[in-house]
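seq:
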Amino acid sequence: MSIRFTLPPLNASRNGMTATRDRWADLLRGTGHDVAPIDTDTPPRPGDTAVVLNGYKSRQAIRDLRAVHGDTIRLVVCMTGTDLYRDLPEHPDEYANLALADALVLLHPGAELALPEQLRAQSTVIVQSAEVGPHPVEQDPGVFDLCVIGHLREVKDPMRAAEASRLLPAASRVRVTHVGKALTPTFDALARREMAENPRYRWLGEQDRAHTERALLASRGLVLTSRLEGGANVIGEAIVAGRPVLSSRTACAEGLLGRDYPGLFDVGDTAALAVLMLRLDTDAMFREDLTSRCDAKRPMFDPAAESAALAALFDALNQPT
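struct:
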């Protein structure tokens, strides 16, 4: 098939969406599909499949693709998080736009429950796969590093882990290592001030993939503090790396880890996160329980599983109607 991808406008946050597009493109090329971006040189042609990421920020692209190409193309919309859990609920008239798609892709089990019932039949869940390279790292035995991976922006609640670390007893070994770019001057100033005032917090800024993976492997666990998530690829990366996860209780985290997963805390609950951080450091049975539960989820993040799910979706779209 000929598959054409488009992202939201450049003023939208596109980091996770870019990673999803690039991973899908690689997986689809690996199964023989022709993949390219939608631009003036490669517009969709009759019989092509157009893939649009983010059902709200790309709403104009969805309308334009249908208006220009009608039913001559197949249209797939991938719901990436802020669209499903924030923007569309705040602008419910835009749900009608999703009905223009032939398929809606959701990135975690249970995400279909966030859609109006009439849209659920055209939705399918494809969990994002993860791979972490075999980097040689050494863990400091005197420090219990917990890694936060994500750019500093409001929806990620990026300073929550640092604030929780301030509540820990003096004897705690916990240190928070944060990898990610500050997307506003305000967050840049907050992170720098936190490092100056809080010896349990270090901010590494934006890192390339290899250095980010090394930071994860050098840690004893991952902390995810987001207010909402669509796919939370970092959960899969932590699980593949063999690191237990502490996460805010979002629909995404419950879908990927299980509603009864003991490492969940309510969004914004600093004290509850501090308790979990301390338990992960000091309670071997708790740590082993989380690690065992995460290990059991590893097959969900196998690239072969994501590749097969994508192949099934696009094969179904390619069937004559």
